[in-house]
Design a protein that fits this description.
10-stranded mixed beta sheet, disordered N terminus
């Protein structure tokens, strides 16, 4: 790495920034695997990731098969035009793993994992690209929430947020989306679809989209939403037809104009299925969200899918994954990461 001597002049500072950027050249490397009933998680995949969590135990194949059937059925329910038997379409899912090489040595760290959808039209035989993003997995986010945030508030009487919380993670994500690697593989910006927060209240508006459904608004953003904002993402909340709760959509640009109906349906059908499995109290509730809606994980009036998971284990594993990121990424590369992130912001 080139040494940098800071001077007072603006010209020197700009040269310093340029030298540091030249010296620290992050490279993003992609690999992918099909998500189907034969899926086996890679060693670098977070165990708590939705798709990896399903592919465990004796019932793994049945879990995966049931999940894919749920996704396809939901897709055909929403894409109901020219689809009299509700079987015209199916969704293929591809898990995209993004590794980051910090110093050009070839050694990488698993930075990001997302899902990419493809839509199969069995009437025409056409296979089209859907949306990339959908689910979002990150070891660095585990570190921020399960290690850094926990340590910061360990001895505090009041809850607080560390300075620059989420900035490195946000810059890594923006660096990937703006990279040539991303542009070579994906034609549109990512959309991430998550659950609503169970400690906020949502209010339905009069805005209705033919696919996304009724829009909801919230007066106060959650910590997760603030975190995703540092990734450069906007947020909106919609409850599609036949859903019982709104979904949270994170995106760049214009969510309603930048994507086709089938692309949006591929995200809704995929992520609503995962939420029904992992948050049935909200997304498989027996009552539909009303004009004023407060989600609750204590809601007993809900139905279970045939797929069951251990929520307490998931919380514990999240902490272990955060410590993994701390040991293998944050601590050994701290100086490089801080320099790169600071210069990326410029």
């Amino acid at each position: 790495m080139k040494s940098i001597i800071l001077e007072d002049s603006k010209t020197s500072k700009m040269k310093d920034i340029e030298n540091t950027q030249n010296a620290i050249n992050f490279t993003f490397k992609l690999k992918s695997i099909r998500f189907d009933e034969n899926y086996v998680p890679a060693n670098s995949t977070r165990t708590t990731t939705n798709f990896a969590n399903l592919a465990r135990g004796e019932s793994r194949k049945q879990n995966l098969r049931n999940t894919i059937n749920m996704i396809n059925n939901r897709f055909n329910t929403l894409a109901n035009w020219d689809n009299p038997n509700s079987d015209r379409y199916s969704v293929e899912l591809e898990i995209v793993s993004v590794d980051i090489d910090l110093d050009g040595s070839g050694a990488t760290f698993p930075a990001i994992e997302v899902l990419r959808t493809h839509i199969i039209d069995h009437k025409t035989g056409k296979r089209t690209e859907g949306i990339v993003g959908n689910n979002f997995s990150s070891y660095v986010r585990d570190y921020d929430f399960s290690v850094l945030l926990s340590e910061y508030n360990k001895d505090e009487d009041t809850y607080g947020i560390p300075d620059n919380f989420g900035e490195l993670h946000g810059n890594i994500f923006k660096g990937f989306v703006n990279s040539e690697t991303y542009k070579e593989h994906f034609s549109k910006s990512p959309v991430i679809c998550l659950s609503v927060s169970n400690n906020k209240t949502y209010h339905r508006t009069g805005n209705h989209h033919p696919i996304l459904g009724y829009e909801y608004e919230v007066n106060e953003s959650s910590l997760t939403e603030q975190y995703f904002k540092k990734m450069g993402l906007q947020v909106r909340y919609f409850m599609p037809a036949d859903s019982v709760a709104p979904l949270t959509f994170y995106f760049f640009g214009d969510l309603l104009a930048d994507y086709t109906n089938l692309e949006l349906i591929s995200t809704i059908s995929t992520m609503e299925t995962f939420q029904k499995i992992y948050r049935p109290e909200i997304y498989n509730a027996n009552a539909v969200a009303g004009q004023c809606y407060k989600p609750s994980l204590n809601n007993e009036d809900h139905s279970l899918t045939k797929i069951v998971y251990d929520r307490e284990e998931r919380t514990r594993l999240g902490i272990e994954q955060g410590k993994f990121a701390e040991k293998h990424f944050m601590k050994p590369y701290r100086n490089i990461l801080e320099q790169w992130s600071a210069n990326f912001a410029h």
